[in-house]
Amino acid sequence: MLSSSSDTELVAAWRALSGLATGDGWKVIELFSIGNCCVMAGRRGVRNEESVLVGVKGNVPSQPFQLPRGQGFSLISTELQGHPANHSWFALVRQESGSLELFTKVAVDLLNLMESTSAQDGLRIHSAMISRIRAWQAFMKRDSDGVLSTEEEIGLFGELLVLQNLLDDGVSEFDALDSWTGPDDGLHDFLLGDGAVEVKTTLAPTGFIAKVSNLDQLDDSLHQPLYVAAVRLAQLSEGATLPDLIDLVAGQIHDPGATALLNSRLVSAGYMDMTQVEYTRRFRCSELTYRIVRADSPRLTRSSVPAAILEARYSLDLDAYPVAASTYADISNSLGVKNQWN
After folding, report:
1. What are the pLDDT digits (tens) for 224-270?
2. Cβ distance 75 to 91 under 8 Å?
3. Which parts of the chain fold into alpha helices (H)?
4. CA atoms within 13 A of residue 89's CA, in its CB half-sphere
5. What does the domain layout of the chain look like in residue ranges?
6. pTM (2 d.p.)
């Protein structure tokens, strides 16, 4: 996601602009202008904040309260005098409390994203920008060193295998990535058609004990039908690392918008390219089955526990759930989804 050349160019531009801006105005240096997107390095006014300005061709309406704020930076809608009037301008601005090193990483990632999506229409570019910035904010809230825990690594591996299954079974690239809501703290890992799929992953060779994080996760009254994708991994020397699997999935995606969404989801999940050498464990999938949640399925839901119980976490023997299918294609009709091959 990050390139050292972009990092150097951006920092040099900020250094050249330091102290030049006055009042509420912008001082900018153009970094590139291609397709429907123009990107500037900038500083604004007496506070001299490091910023990246993105001009999206066309009228892209955006309410201020919908723009991401917090975690050391904010995105604002702005105007840029003397530059193309047919662009809608947005500025990613470092706040005084924000780390310059981390903000630079966010800014360079945004530059690369804008370059890769510049051929799309303005609304798609804007949507990709908002999604990526929210992903970075989610990443920063994790307060981690950029390396997933063992449990998180295994969980992400399982979700990526399900994503790969969706792509293999004909779900369009963008729809597949758009349905993957787990990294953004969605109630379920995938929202598909009228229903949902929750992914549970284990390394246990026998049995399937799954952790359930709340009272809503297995409540099929919220999304119906509700399936649990049971993913069993074996740790083997000839298996794939997490970065290997990410590369395989990325290789299946050719839509720039879907690629941007994949990268945003990975950032939200806490995965960073720069730390990929830390993931040395190799896994192979030995089972991927879809199990249906039914009215008589053993689980805890808000309607089945006393009202005084507000939250609960528990472990569940997933073998109590019947196997409905071994491929996504076999459950897609029940979800009300048509794939791109139909």
Report:
1. 999 999 999 999 999 999 999 999 999 999 988 899 899 989 988 98
2. yes
3. 4-17, 100-117, 122-141, 150-168, 173-179, 242-251, 256-269, 329-335
4. 20
5. 4-141, 150-335
6. 0.80
